[in-house]
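Raw record, unedited: Galactosylgalactosylxylosylprotein 3-beta-glucuronosyltransferase
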Amino acid sequence: MKLKLKNVFLAYFLVSIAGLLYALVQLGQPCDCLPPLRAAAEQLRQKDLRISQLQAELRRPPPAPAQPPEPEALPTIYVVTPTYARLVQKAELVRLSQTLSLVPRLHWLLVEDAEGPTPLVSGLLAASGLLFTHLVVLTPKAQRLREGEPGWVHPRGVEQRNKALDWLRGRGGAVGGEKDPPPPGTQGVVYFADDDNTYSRELFEEMRWTRGVSVWPVGLVGGLRFEGPQVQDGRVVGFHTAWEPNRPFPVDMAGFAVALPLLLAKPNAQFDSTAPRGHLESSILSHLVDPKDLEPRAANCTRVREWRLGTSSPCIEPGQPCLGWSRRTDGLKREGS
């Protein structure tokens, strides 16, 4: 056993001596290890530089958040609303005015179906805080609903919407609020918003940058959950509607907006009171745009931003059947619901 350990120790000693001698010999030989060392040193230097840059960025104060455009730089939205006297008129106008007050750079054109301005509407406009123009025009007797006629026999709000168009075109007629029409070159968009609908704020911001005629879906209309354009590759290729899909423009009044410069450039574009049922929108849009050039909004018409709800008149006589109210030739006419 002693002999074997001695042999192992001797072999280890000889190998160590040989390695030491080899190392001593190599000390005097030229070495090509300098380039790898330089490359490693450069990598360390680059990492140190990147660390210094990151530390400087962390010490730098965060940038200020992007500021929205000043209201004066935004195109103006002209909202045209026909209205008439009824039990729920004030409730619906208050609701609509509250929505409009959330939208910057908006001008409300409220048009009464009456012989003259009423204290209710005048007071509501004055208290709204909105930039407004108060207009009045009475629907001709021949276009009013007769006793027993359904509401679709005559298009409603035609004279009132056309009165607003006349004011925008510089033909005057304002009885309150801002009386001067927009000056030449004004950038804006015109939207026809009935007082019995519900609107989201997003809708107005999407229509603001309309170049020609923009469109979007409308909820709870025409017997459907929604009605509106069908879009493919960013272009309108059809319409989802249940009522006369072959109309030139099968859209709801609340489903489109028109650029103000386009409307002013087409002085003959207005609503036709003799248009067949469901063709009132087409009567003006046919003068303004080709269906293929419509501008889809609301995420390519996949989102509903506006709903046709209407407000039911309340029951005001306890113990009696609920009674609705509708517009007749003599003002307000009560009828069974």
